[in-house]
Amino acid sequence: MKLLMTAALALAAAGAAPAQTIEARLTVAQEAAGPRIEPTVYGHFVEHLGSGVYGGLWVGPESDIPNTRGWRNDVVQSLRRIGVPVMRWPGGCFADDYDWRDGIGDPAQRPKRPNRWWGGVDTNRVGTHEFMDLAEQLGSEAYIAGNMGSMPPRAMSQWLEYMTADSNSTLADERRRNGRDKPWKLKYFGVGNESWGCGGNMRAEFQADMHKRYATFLSAPDLVRVASGDGQGDDRLVDVLMERAGWQMEAFTLHYYTMPMEGQKKLPALGFDTVAWAKTLKNALGIEDRIVAVSRIMDKHDAAKRVALYVDEWGTWFEGEPGKSALYQQSSLRDAMVAALSFNVFHRHTDRVKMANIAQMVNVLQALALTDGPRMVLTPTYHVFDLYQPFKGATPLAAKLDAPRWRSGDVELPSVETSVARAADGSTLLALVNLDPARPARVATNLKGQASGRMLTAATMDAHNTFAQPRAVVPAPYTARAGAQGLVLDVPPKTIVVVSVR
Ligand code: AHR
Predict the structure, then answer these.
(1) Catalytic, out of 47, 130, 141, 194
(2) Which atom of ligand 1 has the smallest separation from the CA of 199?
(3) Count of CB atoms situated within 10 Å of the CB of 303
(4) pTM (whole model) above 0.90
(5) Among positive and negative, which fits the CA dihedral 375, 131, 362, 350?
């Protein structure tokens, strides 16, 4: 009785009108469908853009907003709860116009530079030492994006030396004088960003040569040199870079934004109809086609899969909010669906996809937290990162989902989407996403045992959290029920469920 009540209450909470139920069948096989899900696919991206750093994360040690050495405690504590495995910084486009020397030494003496891409002036108050302090506060690996577009290779290699040298070199001593005795542990170093665009408008052949030249001078123990890759659906670029420079990189990147348009105009983040909902989710699922296409080209040059694919920018990109900082947008239940679908896709391609970084952490694009002065609110996207935490390090399992498709306007989509994995403790993890905004789904499975976890849903497609109503979209407990042949999950419309089966 209690279990039946759970689903009924869930439907009521989702405000579902009585509608025909989607009947789906999930068959889970016990064999692994790929290598483990690297925790770093739950990574982040932080750029000097709008209030992504200044205001959103950094308030300065002198601020009344509670902070630890300048980084705001509310945001840091929230992020620590979901675990931040890796964080990419300082850009984005910003990276290829950034001189790392501007951000070290006495903060009062640091130069102020125009932020070429995102407007305003960067005070350089946040530089290498501050960022690495944030990484340590979060327990995160640092992923530094180096400047290939507008600085010589020597500048890039010296930044690496400054951070990682344990010798008595002049740069290591300078770091010590600036307050950091021990070298930092740095695992990831990006060689430029979007070199086909804001990173220098290079031809693929030119970029391949540039990459080799810069990568030659990057050496630190176990360093992953990340080549700037595709962001425009350009197969040729992938081919040229992998063929000519693949041997001098350990990772290659893909940028994929869910940016639904109407003509030349981006769609709004809130106040949309079912067609826009469907269009956005379809657009989000398109990331899988791109991963497949890029992986296929990579396979041609790297059959052993030595070079990893990092989706180091992904997320929704809607029309910005007037009067707010650059690329500030609200994040609704629809964004949460995009996040869940993206994670399901990443789990299906663990042979190549070893890292993904949501764009961006705070106040920019598909943010996990929004701030306004001292106030902070966590978005539905944050809660998806939370729900999916058990998948970090789990092994994906082969699963077959038979579910009808649904249509909205001329968009056709799966009605239900899934990911299944085996956790280190032996339990089976199951994520189900009901994409249909109106109809509940009943998913009959061959899984045995007891399944409990959480779900994320709301009454409207654009439900979101605000400073006044921070708990409009938050996870609720969820329990599956036993059916004749296995567990049955009743998933309300527009809902994400993650359970652990024991
Ligand atoms: O995330 C915003 C921008 O999108 C990044 O700076 C750039 O790399 C991409 O085009």
Answers:
(1) 194
(2) 8
(3) 8
(4) yes
(5) negative
